[in-house]
UniProtKB/TrEMBL annotation:
<comment type="function">
    <text>Catalyzes the conversion of UDP-glucose into UDP-glucuronate, one of the precursors of teichuronic acid.</text>
</comment>
<feature type="binding site">
    <location>
        <position position="35"/>
    </location>
    <ligand>
        <name>NAD(+)</name>
    </ligand>
</feature>
<dbReference type="Pfam" id="PF03720">
    <property type="entry name" value="UDPG_MGDP_dh_C"/>
</dbReference>
<dbReference type="GO" id="GO:0051287">
    <property type="term" value="F:NAD binding"/>
</dbReference>
<dbReference type="Pfam" id="PF03721">
    <property type="entry name" value="UDPG_MGDP_dh_N"/>
</dbReference>
<feature type="binding site">
    <location>
        <begin position="267"/>
        <end position="273"/>
    </location>
    <ligand>
        <name>substrate</name>
    </ligand>
</feature>
<dbReference type="InterPro" id="IPR001732">
    <property type="entry name" value="UDP-Glc/GDP-Man_DH_N"/>
</dbReference>
<feature type="binding site">
    <location>
        <begin position="132"/>
        <end position="133"/>
    </location>
    <ligand>
        <name>NAD(+)</name>
    </ligand>
</feature>
<dbReference type="GO" id="GO:0003979">
    <property type="term" value="F:UDP-glucose 6-dehydrogenase activity"/>
</dbReference>
<dbReference type="InterPro" id="IPR036291">
    <property type="entry name" value="NAD(P)-bd_dom_sf"/>
</dbReference>
<dbReference type="Pfam" id="PF00984">
    <property type="entry name" value="UDPG_MGDP_dh"/>
</dbReference>
<feature type="active site" description="Nucleophile">
    <location>
        <position position="276"/>
    </location>
</feature>
<feature type="binding site">
    <location>
        <position position="346"/>
    </location>
    <ligand>
        <name>NAD(+)</name>
    </ligand>
</feature>
<dbReference type="InterPro" id="IPR008927">
    <property type="entry name" value="6-PGluconate_DH-like_C_sf"/>
</dbReference>
<feature type="binding site">
    <location>
        <position position="260"/>
    </location>
    <ligand>
        <name>substrate</name>
    </ligand>
</feature>
<comment type="similarity">
    <text>Belongs to the UDP-glucose/GDP-mannose dehydrogenase family.</text>
</comment>
<feature type="binding site">
    <location>
        <position position="166"/>
    </location>
    <ligand>
        <name>NAD(+)</name>
    </ligand>
</feature>
């Protein structure tokens, strides 16, 4: 079967970039991305492509090229489902905040809604592709809903998890390490082949891996768990480095040169963030517990516990270094996004660190090159730890890095934006309170240069000290 029409439900950080690449690489396929969120769709359709809702290097050019030709953004979910041969489900699967599995399990209510909607609308056979990260065996539930509530048409379910990382999404999609397609080879080979053919338009066939549904679903959770585990492992060692005089950067280099370990994902930090790592590990822990595998669950839970510890440790260090009180002191945050080159702030360490410091009555001043004030305030409201009034009293957002640091007692680097390295640090130092403290939560600044200027400089894991 040759695919000529695709619809993607969910115009987020995964659905948007993925569909833009498919549209660009497959001019013969009409790609429609739909979302219930009218504001988000309007932003995707903004005449000025710089206003698309997601900041991702290279993405606005891609959208400019394909939009209106074979790439469309719309709120007409039913129409798009009706017209498409293949439907990607790329909606959010946040951690449940209520009931059974609260705080651990993935909330599948948006997935279920999509399945019910597809079943209600479809008048012809459809291939349904799980793009969102899902607990293992979700495809079974999706298939049950489709088959039991549909109009008698045939549905084939595929799992096609997305491995792109934010900030490098376009490159990751153009040159993926692998594309994973899970399906039922006995009854659904035609659907598997159809999706393989879509990717084969630009991905070498040897990188397109087909597996059964459950391996595909579980591989995505496993990949994220392994990546997060590496960050927690190196962060655990950063604390030991601080006690022993070892340097975490030297340690990372030394172990990363072992080809069995490899150099990536060994950068010590204030803690990992992002919409995936914590959510997916908690989900994995929940699944393991559901099967009674408590030792497996405890093992993976430690990755999240260590990450929480790292964020707390970073905050405590600021308070202790500033003579045990930050009450009334201006602490400048450079960065709010969970990593550089994205405007995404979900689970960003900056949110927790600011929460701890607000509890200590600090005055938080924030500058991030891509995150807007509204988002920062919303992130703090979402914590439900204080009123909007208190947030506004405690947090000021700036649009200039030199102003955010002016008069500050300390600077905390929360995101590794490249531009932070290029600032005139002497000028920043001259305008700060003395002693002028810097807490580099990303180990991006040159410790020797900073101490020569006069800063009291703190890096994670004693890096370069
Ligand atoms: C991750 C996976 O990498 C990706 O394959 C999956 O599809 C989604 O989840 P993402 O969350 O976008 O991607 O970014 P990633 O680059 O993995 O970084 C996650 C967090 O870990 C960030 O906060 C980052 O700063 C932190 N990190 C990463 C470190 O602290 N140190 C490292 O060495 C690497
Ligand atoms: P991700 O990072 O996984 O892409 P996002 O939260 O950025 O997640 O995007 C998910 C999108 O899915 C949101 O824009 C949300 O409005 C949309 N969405 C959720 N449920 C539905 C639904 N039933 N129909 C259409 N869009 C939906």
């Amino acid at each position: 079967m040759k695919i000529t029409s695709i619809c993607c439900i969910g115009a987020g950080y995964v659905g948007g970039p993925t569909m833009a690449i498919i549209a660009q690489k497959c001019p013969h396929i009409k790609v429609t991305v739909v979302d219930l969120n009218e504001e988000r769709i309007a932003a995707w359709n903004d005449d000025d492509v710089n206003n698309i809702p997601i900041y991702e290097p290279g993405l606005s050019d891609l959208v400019a090229e394909a939009r209106g030709k074979n790439l469309f953004f719309s709120t007409e979910v039913e129409k798009a489902i009706d017209e498409a041969q293949m439907i990607f489900i790329s909606v959010n699967t946040p951690t449940k905040t209520y009931g059974l599995g609260k705080g651990m399990a993935a909330d599948l209510k948006y997935i279920e809604l999509c399945a019910r909607q597809i079943a209600a609308v479809a008048k012809e056979n459809k291939i349904v592709v799980e793009k969102s990260t899902l607990p293992v065996r979700t495809a079974e539930a999706v298939k049950n809903i489709l088959d039991n509530t549909g109009n008698g048409v045939q549905f084939q379910i595929l799992s096609n998890p997305e491995f792109l990382a934010e900030g490098t999404a376009v490159q990751d999609l153009l040159n993926p390490d692998r594309v994973l397609i899970g399906g039922d080879a006995t009854n659904g080979q035609e659907a598997i082949d159809a999706l393989v053919e879509v990717y084969a338009n630009w991905v070498p066939r040897e990188k397109i891996l087909t597996t059964n549904l459950w391996s595909s679903e579980l591989s995505k959770l496993t990949a994220n768990a392994f990546l997060a585990q590496r960050v927690s492992s190196i962060n655990a060692m950063s604390e030991l480095c601080e006690k022993t005089g070892a340097d975490i950067n030297e340690l990372s280099k030394a172990i990363g040169m072992d080809s069995r370990i490899g150099p990536k994902f060994l950068k010590a930090s204030v803690g990992f963030g992002g919409s995936c790592f914590q959510k997916d590990i908690l989900n994995l822990v929940y699944i393991a517990k559901t099967y009674g595998l408590n030792k497996v669950a405890d093992y993976w839970e430690q990755v999240v516990i260590m990450n929480d510890h790292q964020k707390r440790r970073f905050s405590n260090n600021i308070v202790q270094t500033l003579y045990n009180t930050v009450s009334g002191k201006k602490i400048a945050f450079l960065g709010w996004a969970f990593k550089k080159d994205t405007n995404d702030t979900r689970e960003s360490a900056a949110i927790n660190v600011s929460d701890f410091l607000l509890n200590e009555q600090a005055k938080i001043a924030v500058y991030d090159p891509r995150v807007k004030e509204k988002q920062i305030i919303n992130d703090l409201i979402y914590l439900k730890s204080r009123s909007l009034d208190d947030i506004k009293k405690g947090v000021i957002v700036y649009d200039n890095p030199y102003e955010v640091c002016r008069g500050a007692h300390a600077i905390a680097i929360l995101t590794e934006w490249d531009e932070f390295k290029e600032y005139d640090w002497q000028k920043i130092y001259d305008n700060m309170q003395k002693p002028a403290f810097v807490f580099d939560g990303r180990n991006i600044l040159d410790a020797k240069k900073m101490t020569t200027i006069g800063f009291v400089f703190n890096a994670i894991g004693g890096a370069n000290e």
